[in-house]
Design a protein that fits this description.
7-stranded mixed β-barrel; single chain
Length: 146
């Protein structure tokens, strides 16, 4: 799959605080999402796949919202597995995927067994750094830059 869509955006005000849904967000190169607690470093933006979340919920017999993952971006039509080093385009912005997002203990608070289930094949999503800033909005196209 080469082309997908941005399904949702969440901004984390502070560590262990609720994720705020947003229709759009401003990305800043080398920093991350304006208003998000994670700024700078390699983990500026976190991304999860809708299909993977749906599969996890099916396996665990649960129906938790994908916002429980605590990622910034929810995408569909894009395979994040083994994407380290690749560049993901979201709207007009580019994010270099730095690695796999490891699930934390909060996942089991959301759905018992979720943390272990997410350890398989990048099911916890990916994280990366913003290369090109700009405005992104739910509904924007997403794809890999070759």
């Amino acid at each position: 799959m080469n082309e997908g869509q941005l399904q949702a955006i969440w901004i984390k005000r502070a560590r262990r605080q609720p994720m705020d849904p947003a229709d759009s967000a401003q990305l800043v190169a080398g920093r991350g999402i304006v208003g998000n607690s994670d700024q700078g470093g390699l983990r500026q933006v976190t991304v999860i796949e809708q299909a993977v979340w749906d599969e996890l919920m099916s396996r665990l017999g649960a129906s938790a919202s994908s916002s429980e993952r605590r990622a910034n971006l929810l995408v569909n039509g894009i395979d994040l597995a083994n994407s380290g080093g690749r560049i993901l385009r979201v709207g007009e912005c580019r994010i270099r995927i730095a690695g796999e997002t490891r699930p934390c203990d909060r996942m089991d608070e959301a759905v018992p067994g979720l943390k272990d289930a997410m350890k398989e094949n990048w099911f916890g999503g990916a994280f990366g750094e913003v290369l090109d800033g700009g405005q992104i909005s739910v509904g924007d196209s997403v794809g890999w830059v070759d």
